[in-house]
Description:
113 residues, mainly alpha, 1 helix, 27% helix
Amino acid sequence: MASNKFSIPSFLIALAFLSMSFTLEARHLLQTNAPNFPNIPTLLKPTTLPPLPSITTLPQGTLPPLPSIPTIPTIPKLNFPPLPSTSLPNIPSIPTTIPSFPSFSPPPSSSSP
């Protein structure tokens, strides 16, 4: 129990020192000069775009008719014999009242008001 009293504050102190060191490292990185990276080559910009193909060059004509959807054959109805009548056994009902136990009830009062 005693070690638990000191473990939480020591963890918080260690966390505070860790965050301070992160802050100092970040400040150090901000104060240093950035390394010289090579320049990115510039890409040539095209002056004109190539012409788009026209839509009117598509072939024109009549389309053949669509095939008809085949009909689903009807399934004949089957006659099953009636199921035998069986009675299920009676399931006892769950009582909804809690019985009182005389040992748990308070004793009757001896004086009447």
